[in-house]
Design brief:
By secondary structure, the protein is α/β, with parallel strands linked by helices. It is built from twelve helices and 14 strands. The strands form three sheets. Strands 2-1-3-12-11-4-5-10-8-9 form a ten-stranded mixed sheet, with helices on both faces. Strands 6-7 form a two-stranded antiparallel sheet. The longest helix has 19 residues. The mean pLDDT is 96. Bound molecules: 3-isopropylmalic acid (IPM) and manganese (II) ion (MN).
């Protein structure tokens, strides 16, 4: 298959981990006779420096024409003092909106060899395997009005949703639950927020269309607690943009490090943007020590969701698993008796495994 992929390295460690993604994809293409072409575009702080805006039109056009987009990370102290419309984060929010990427899938799976790397007890983390379905282009991060009053004495942000916007993310979550264990937890704050009351009503309405899915409602504060006390009780979580942002960072402690969490952002047409959940980590940028696994696992999600290359996706995921099973890890993870390696070395080991295992990959036991 021929596929054209836009790479958005962004800032900080984004540039380093995007290189890992490209190396992995080139190995996959070689093994399975695919032809992947790559095009680099600017976003975030580097785009501010080069184009005076965090999201140049040329980036939006290239992404809209691509078969899929891979993004590293945006942001850094250099751009922290800019007015909010010029911050690197606006580039990320803007590209999500421009491509209509309403569904953000964030799988969180505890790898057996990293159980002790989590600050939580092994007995709590063991067996965690959940998917956060975060609404990505509405809610509190996009609602208007948003801003300060002219006299600077008051401020407003708006949490707005249409019924249609909630319906499409809830449908996606039900469908994701059908592909997994059939258990959906809808997270809201329906005891306080109007938006959450509508959200809950829609989940209840939709339930009739998915009789094979068991639904549970949970308030976001309770969900935050349960994520770190009984994470194994979750299968699929669906929630509003900001709740999903916060809960997914929290859930990353189950995997030992934020450096392990991939994500897929999808629209109705199936075009996707794939990015690690972690940020640009300016403190370690340029040192060659960043964990490339969240980015590499994001490329697996791209192979699966945008290209329907299940076997290839599974091969990438099993290679990651095998590296961890052998005790290799980057500096963000504390692994007892492990072997600490840098970004390039870890990537190279994964590439070698992809090359040596491609003939024997089977798609049993893969996760969605
Ligand atoms: C994320 C990030 C972004 C978000 C920021 C950088 C705008 O935290 O992808 O989770 O809040 O969506
Ligand atoms: Mn976040």
């Amino acid at each position: 298959m021929k596929k054209h992929i836009v790479l958005l390295p962004g800032d900080g460690i984004g540039k380093e981990v995007i290189q890992s993604a490209k190396d992995v994809l080139e190995a996959v293409a070689g093994e399975f006779d695919h032809s992947f072409t790559f095009e680099i575009q600017d976003i975030g702080g580097c785009a501010i420096d080069l184009h005076g805006t965090p999201l140049p039109d040329s980036t939006v056009t290239a992404c809209a024409q691509a078969d899929a987009v891979l993004l590293g990370a945006v942001g850094g102290p250099k751009w922290d003092r800019l007015p909010s419309h010029l911050r690197p984060e606006k580039g990320l929010l803007g590209i999500r909106k421009a491509l209509n990427l309403f569904a953000n899938l964030r799988p969180v799976k505890a790898f057996p060899n990293l159980l002790h790397a989590s600050p939580l007890k092994e007995s709590v983390v063991n067996g965690s395997d959940l998917l956060i379905v975060r609404e990505l282009i509405g809610g509190l991060y996009f609602g208007t009005p948003s801003g300060r009053s002219a006299d600077g004495q008051s401020v407003v942000d708006t949490l707005a949703y249409t019924k249609k916007e909630i319906e499409q993310i809830v449908d996606k979550a039900f469908q994701s639950a059908q592909l997994r264990k059939g258990h959906l937890t809808s997270v809201d704050k329906a005891n306080v927020l109007e938006s959450s009351k509508l959200w809950r009503e829609i989940v209840e309405e939709k339930q009739a269309q998915y009789p094979d899915v068991m639904v549970e409602h949970m308030l976001v504060d309770a969900a935050a607690m349960k994520l770190v006390t009984n994470p194994g009780s979750f299968d699929v979580i669906v929630t509003e943009n900001m709740f999903g942002d916060i809960l997914s960072d929290e859930a990353s402690v189950l995997t030992g490090s934020l450096g392990m969490l991939p994500s897929a952002s999808l629209n109705q047409a199936g075009v996707g943007l794939y990015e690690p959940v972690h940020g640009s980590a300016p403190d370690i940028a340029g040192k060659g020590v960043a964990n490339p696994l969240a980015m590499i696992l994001s490329t697996a999600l791209m192979l699966r969701h945008s290209f329907q290359m299940e076997k290839e996706a599974h091969l990438v995921e099993t290679a990651v698993q095998a590296i961890l099973d052998d005790g290799y890890h980057t500096a963000d993870l504390e692994v007892v008796n492990g072997h600490k390696v840098g970004t390039a070395e870890m990537t190279k080991m994964i590439v070698e495994l992809i090359k040596s295992q491609s003939a024997t990959v089977s798609i049993l036991n893969c996760y969605v």
